[in-house]
Design a protein that fits this description.
Layout (H helix, E strand, L loop, with lengths): L19 E14 L2 E8 L2 E8 H6 L8 E10 L7 E12 L17 H6 L1 H4 L3 H23 L3 E2 L5 E2 L11 E4 L2 E5 L4 H7 L5 E9 L12 E10 L3 H22 L1 H7 L11 E4 H10 L12 H10 L3 E5 L12 E2 L2 E5 L1 E6 L2 E8 L4 H10 L8 H6 L7 E7 H9 L20
Parallel strand pairs: 3-5, 6-10, 12-13
Antiparallel strand pairs: 1-2, 1-4, 2-3, 4-5, 7-9, 8-9, 10-11, 11-18, 13-16, 14-15, 16-17, 17-18
Helix pairs in contact: 4-6, 4-7
Length: about 425
Amino acid sequence: MGFVKTHDISELTSELIGKEVVLGGWIEDLRKLGKMTFITLRDVSGISQIIVKGELNDQLGEINRQSVVSVKGIVQDTKARDFDFEIKAEEIDVLAKAIHPLPVDPIGRVESNIDTRLNHRALDMRNQKTASIFKLRHHVLASLRKTLSDKKFIEITTPKIIGSASEGGADLFSLEYFGKTAYLAQSPQLYKEQMTIGLERVFEISNFYRAEKSHTGRHLSEFTSVDIEAAFMDYNDVMDVLESLVMEVYKHTSESCKKEQETIGHTIEVPKSPFERITYTQALEELKSEGEKVEFGDDLLDSHLRIIGQNHPGFFFLMDWPMKLKPFYIREKDEDPELSRSFDLQYGYLELSSGGTRLHNTDVLKTRLKEQGLDPAAFADHLQTFDWGMPPHSGWGMGLDRLMTTLIGIDNVREVVLYPRDPDRLKP
């Protein structure tokens, strides 16, 4: 490479007119008109027009679209409608040729289905709609981390290879681990609870694994979860934390990501706050009034949640579920031990998050494990930490990928995950 990039395309301003710059990027379009060639050069930050004339034009030869080039040239005014200025090229180096035809058209002139795009995912990142989704995801992660840090949460990283099931349950991937059986973690549940002993408020944003054979637009075998656990908070407190996080994500992206919204063709609308809070019992009443046959203790099916979601569009909390539907570590309500201090955050029918107040009494935990058909001995490492002074604590886990789909109005999580993993997809 004969010269080094001096500017991103987005950094070009009228003050640079008449000055020499070096740009690097890929050729999105190329038109030869007699003794001139017009090149549309794109990099991650934007797009620019390059004019090639004279001897350089004669030497240009064949350059395929999407090839990577560096361009040295002078910034000048332009008559082109779509550009504020253009670059008169002095030198062009082809750094990497692209084949023709490509398996996916990154400009989107030829539509490709999602499977074709996922099979060529790196090239799909040159499609500006796809790139904008992942730029937005970056902003969402930055917003989540900032808000949690401001609320004095400490970021932790828990193991993904674990020796026993973290929450009981059968949806685990097992693997051979130096002659023993290990599992991929389905959540950081037990570790994050343990961390409240000394760090009090913790959060983790990591990938976790569920061996569910689900073929829907909202299930993945590997998904990104945002988890928190907080000492000295009850479930109402952590619901407040969750609501403020979601509100901040929407506010931040709606204000800071105008260009991305335009490219995707979706305006991010900040939701109304506070989010409605309805109880499981209220939900049952709503379902019965719609003629659904549901009894106390029944889990709510997708069809049920769609009815409730129609009654409560947007974000709402569904709280106070029956104890028997909840994991062993969830605490009951003192005034009604059949009900739990738990909640789900819903976006219409879509469950985004689940959480609650945890048990912090070892004896009750052991009893609950036995009631759920789990062996307390398998949880000995976890249970011993409760003998070291475990503060009362609450927390939740939220699916980042699902949150992203609500933000950009897309109903398939595969669109917002770089390389999705589901029962049918293990490549690329």
